[in-house]
Design brief:
5-stranded parallel sheet; 19% strand; binds 4'-phosphopantetheine
Length: 160
Protein backbone atom coordinates (compact mmCIF):
# COMPACT_ATOMS: atom_id res chain seq x y z
CA UNK A 1 0.00 0.00 0.00
CA UNK A 2 1.27 3.46 -0.89
CA UNK A 3 1.92 5.63 2.14
CA UNK A 4 0.90 9.20 1.42
CA UNK A 5 1.50 12.28 3.56
CA UNK A 6 0.12 15.74 3.05
CA UNK A 7 2.51 18.65 3.51
CA UNK A 8 0.31 21.72 3.98
CA UNK A 9 1.22 25.37 4.16
CA UNK A 10 0.84 28.84 2.78
CA UNK A 11 4.04 28.55 0.70
CA UNK A 12 4.00 32.31 0.08
CA UNK A 13 6.52 31.67 -1.40
CA UNK A 14 8.17 28.23 -1.21
CA UNK A 15 11.64 28.38 0.39
CA UNK A 16 14.65 26.08 0.34
CA UNK A 17 13.62 25.03 3.85
CA UNK A 18 10.25 23.75 2.53
CA UNK A 19 11.99 21.85 -0.26
CA UNK A 20 14.37 20.24 2.23
CA UNK A 21 11.43 19.03 4.36
CA UNK A 22 9.54 17.65 1.33
CA UNK A 23 12.60 15.77 0.05
CA UNK A 24 13.38 14.29 3.46
CA UNK A 25 9.71 13.41 3.90
CA UNK A 26 10.05 11.16 0.87
CA UNK A 27 12.34 8.91 2.92
CA UNK A 28 9.35 8.17 5.15
CA UNK A 29 6.46 8.27 2.67
CA UNK A 30 5.98 7.01 -0.89
CA UNK A 31 4.09 10.11 -1.92
CA UNK A 32 3.93 13.63 -0.56
CA UNK A 33 1.16 15.97 -1.57
CA UNK A 34 2.16 19.57 -1.12
CA UNK A 35 -1.11 21.34 -0.38
CA UNK A 36 -1.37 25.12 -0.58
CA UNK A 37 -3.94 26.70 1.70
CA UNK A 38 -6.23 29.08 -0.15
CA UNK A 39 -7.03 31.42 2.71
CA UNK A 40 -9.07 34.45 1.64
CA UNK A 41 -8.57 35.90 5.16
CA UNK A 42 -4.83 36.35 4.55
CA UNK A 43 -3.24 38.92 2.27
CA UNK A 44 -0.60 36.85 0.46
CA UNK A 45 2.14 38.29 -1.74
CA UNK A 46 1.52 35.62 -4.38
CA UNK A 47 -1.78 34.22 -5.64
CA UNK A 48 -2.49 30.54 -5.11
CA UNK A 49 -1.83 29.99 -8.84
CA UNK A 50 1.57 31.73 -8.61
CA UNK A 51 2.47 29.73 -5.49
CA UNK A 52 1.51 26.51 -7.24
CA UNK A 53 3.62 27.43 -10.29
CA UNK A 54 6.64 28.19 -8.10
CA UNK A 55 6.28 24.85 -6.29
CA UNK A 56 5.97 23.02 -9.60
CA UNK A 57 8.95 24.86 -11.07
CA UNK A 58 11.12 24.09 -8.04
CA UNK A 59 10.14 20.47 -7.45
CA UNK A 60 8.62 19.07 -10.63
CA UNK A 61 11.54 16.70 -11.25
CA UNK A 62 11.18 14.93 -7.92
CA UNK A 63 9.48 11.53 -8.03
CA UNK A 64 6.71 11.10 -5.48
CA UNK A 65 5.79 14.78 -5.12
CA UNK A 66 2.31 15.95 -6.09
CA UNK A 67 0.61 19.32 -5.65
CA UNK A 68 -2.83 20.42 -4.57
CA UNK A 69 -4.66 23.43 -3.20
CA UNK A 70 -7.29 23.40 -0.49
CA UNK A 71 -9.61 25.50 1.58
CA UNK A 72 -11.50 24.42 4.67
CA UNK A 73 -10.12 21.87 7.06
CA UNK A 74 -6.74 20.29 6.47
CA UNK A 75 -7.89 16.91 7.82
CA UNK A 76 -10.69 16.83 5.23
CA UNK A 77 -8.19 17.48 2.46
CA UNK A 78 -5.90 14.79 3.93
CA UNK A 79 -8.71 12.24 4.06
CA UNK A 80 -9.84 13.04 0.51
CA UNK A 81 -6.25 12.43 -0.64
CA UNK A 82 -5.94 9.16 1.29
CA UNK A 83 -3.09 10.63 3.33
CA UNK A 84 -2.19 8.86 6.55
CA UNK A 85 -0.16 11.75 7.94
CA UNK A 86 0.37 15.48 7.95
CA UNK A 87 4.01 16.45 7.46
CA UNK A 88 5.29 19.67 9.02
CA UNK A 89 8.72 21.17 9.48
CA UNK A 90 9.76 22.46 12.88
CA UNK A 91 12.36 25.19 13.17
CA UNK A 92 13.17 26.85 16.48
CA UNK A 93 11.26 26.51 19.77
CA UNK A 94 9.13 29.45 18.64
CA UNK A 95 7.34 27.15 16.18
CA UNK A 96 6.51 24.62 18.82
CA UNK A 97 3.42 26.09 20.48
CA UNK A 98 1.56 26.75 17.24
CA UNK A 99 2.53 23.39 15.75
CA UNK A 100 1.49 21.61 18.93
CA UNK A 101 -1.95 23.30 18.85
CA UNK A 102 -2.38 22.54 15.17
CA UNK A 103 -1.42 18.89 15.59
CA UNK A 104 -3.70 18.40 18.60
CA UNK A 105 -6.66 20.07 16.92
CA UNK A 106 -6.14 18.00 13.77
CA UNK A 107 -5.95 14.86 15.89
CA UNK A 108 -9.19 15.78 17.65
CA UNK A 109 -10.86 16.33 14.29
CA UNK A 110 -9.61 13.07 12.80
CA UNK A 111 -7.84 10.49 14.93
CA UNK A 112 -6.80 8.46 11.91
CA UNK A 113 -4.37 11.10 10.67
CA UNK A 114 -1.05 11.47 12.48
CA UNK A 115 1.20 14.53 12.38
CA UNK A 116 4.88 13.92 11.67
CA UNK A 117 7.43 16.65 12.34
CA UNK A 118 10.85 16.88 10.77
CA UNK A 119 13.42 19.23 12.23
CA UNK A 120 14.40 21.82 9.70
CA UNK A 121 17.93 21.46 8.36
CA UNK A 122 20.33 23.66 10.32
CA UNK A 123 20.99 25.75 7.22
CA UNK A 124 17.33 26.78 7.07
CA UNK A 125 16.66 27.29 10.74
CA UNK A 126 16.04 31.04 10.38
CA UNK A 127 14.44 30.83 6.95
CA UNK A 128 10.76 31.68 6.74
CA UNK A 129 8.60 32.96 3.91
CA UNK A 130 7.68 36.03 6.00
CA UNK A 131 11.23 37.08 6.84
CA UNK A 132 12.30 36.49 3.24
CA UNK A 133 9.50 38.75 1.96
CA UNK A 134 10.39 41.44 4.48
CA UNK A 135 14.07 41.41 3.53
CA UNK A 136 13.30 41.34 -0.20
CA UNK A 137 10.76 44.18 0.09
CA UNK A 138 13.59 46.47 1.20
CA UNK A 139 16.07 45.23 -1.38
CA UNK A 140 17.77 42.50 0.68
CA UNK A 141 19.39 39.58 -1.14
CA UNK A 142 17.51 36.32 -0.42
CA UNK A 143 18.91 34.36 -3.34
CA UNK A 144 20.48 31.68 -1.12
CA UNK A 145 17.19 30.98 0.69
CA UNK A 146 14.84 30.33 -2.22
CA UNK A 147 15.04 28.54 -5.57
CA UNK A 148 16.27 30.78 -8.44
CA UNK A 149 12.84 31.01 -10.09
CA UNK A 150 11.28 32.11 -6.80
CA UNK A 151 14.00 34.71 -6.37
CA UNK A 152 13.19 36.04 -9.85
CA UNK A 153 9.50 36.29 -9.06
CA UNK A 154 10.13 38.00 -5.71
CA UNK A 155 12.32 40.59 -7.42
CA UNK A 156 9.66 41.14 -10.06
CA UNK A 157 6.99 41.69 -7.35
CA UNK A 158 9.10 44.27 -5.56
CA UNK A 159 10.43 45.82 -8.75
CA UNK A 160 14.07 45.28 -7.75
O1 LIG B 1 2.52 27.73 6.22
P1 LIG B 1 1.55 27.95 7.32
O2 LIG B 1 0.80 29.24 7.11
O3 LIG B 1 2.19 27.85 8.68
O4 LIG B 1 0.48 26.75 7.25
C1 LIG B 1 -0.63 26.71 8.13
C2 LIG B 1 -1.63 25.63 7.70
C3 LIG B 1 -2.04 25.78 6.26
C4 LIG B 1 -1.01 24.27 7.91
C5 LIG B 1 -2.88 25.75 8.62
O5 LIG B 1 -3.28 27.09 8.68
C6 LIG B 1 -4.08 24.92 8.15
O6 LIG B 1 -4.01 23.72 8.10
N1 LIG B 1 -5.19 25.60 7.81
C7 LIG B 1 -6.40 24.97 7.31
C8 LIG B 1 -7.54 25.03 8.36
C9 LIG B 1 -7.33 23.96 9.41
O7 LIG B 1 -7.57 22.80 9.19
N2 LIG B 1 -6.80 24.40 10.60
C10 LIG B 1 -6.43 23.49 11.67
C11 LIG B 1 -7.58 23.05 12.54
S1 LIG B 1 -8.63 24.33 13.08
Amino acid sequence: MQRTAIYPGSFDPVTNGHIDIAKRGLKLFDRIIIAILNNPGKQPLFTVQERLEMLEESMSGIDGIAFDTFDGLLVDCAQKSNAIAVLRGMRAVSDFEYEFQLALMNRKLNREIETVFLMTGLRWIFTSSSIIKEAARFGGDVSDMVPPEVNRRIKAKFGS
